[in-house]
Amino acid sequence: MGCVMNVMRTTTEVASQDKFEEMLVVAEAAVLLGVKTGRVHALIESGALPSRFATREEVAQLLTVGRVRGVPGSGIRLVPRYAVEAAQHRPGRGWRKGRSRKPKDAQA
């Protein structure tokens, strides 16, 4: 019998195969999610959002069309659009505004 290798792919490996046209820069992802860019970076570091670094050609294209103004020394992270859309439907952190913290039966 042949040996079958069980290979698990990481979210970074999956993101590296996504098309450039379907990727968002961190600032764009932050706007769609309604959070600051630091929170998007935290989601990337925790593994909740897949990402990859932009290639030199992609960086040049991002600069040309004006999606970024400059390139930090660490590079530009790209996040797949489908991952941002999935993250939009996740529950947020903390208690939602306007929602009572008391149990319904205790309010009477």
Automatic annotation (TrEMBL):
Biased amino acid composition, Basic residues: 90-102
Region (Disordered): 88-108
Protein name (record): Helix-turn-helix domain-containing protein
